Amino acid sequence: MMNMQFANEQEKLLHDVGVLSFVVTELSLYLDTHPNDRNALEYFRHYNRMANQARQEYSAKYAPLTISCVDASDCSNWQWALTPMPWEGGCN
Q1: pLDDT for 24-60, tens place per residue?
Q2: In this structure, what DSSP letter does residue 71 have?
Q3: Which site from 3, 27, 42, 91 is most exposed, i.e. has the minimal number of CB atoms within 10 Å?
Q4: Contacting residues for 65 by C-beta, under 8 A, at least 6 apart
Q5: Is residue 26 part of a domain?
Q6: How far apart are the C-alpha atoms of 64 and 71, rounded to whole Å?
Q7: Which candidate, 29, 90, 36, places its Cα nearest to that of 63?
Q8: Domain that holds residue 36
Q9: Cα angle vertex 87, ends 85, 91, to 5°?
Q10: In-domain check, residue 83
Q11: How many structural domains is the chain composed of?
């Protein structure tokens, strides 16, 4: 595995979210054609938990990545669009 250099913790966590999301997507595509592969299903469950945890951690520390990560009960007003998204320099 390559030794990745990250500018900060936020950038590393966003990278981890991306990698884990990719793995979950690929496993789900594999399971579409191999639904009885128990090993693949266990891998899917494991990496899906890790991806959800990474998204929740990123959302708690920085800003929600998706609308499903928004905790609307924890805010007095709508703040979804107020923080810069990663592609807008949100990791800098």
Answers
A1: 999 999 999 999 999 999 999 999 999 999 999 998 8
A2: -
A3: 3
A4: 14, 17, 55, 58, 59, 86
A5: yes
A6: 9
A7: 90
A8: 8-63
A9: 70
A10: no
A11: 1
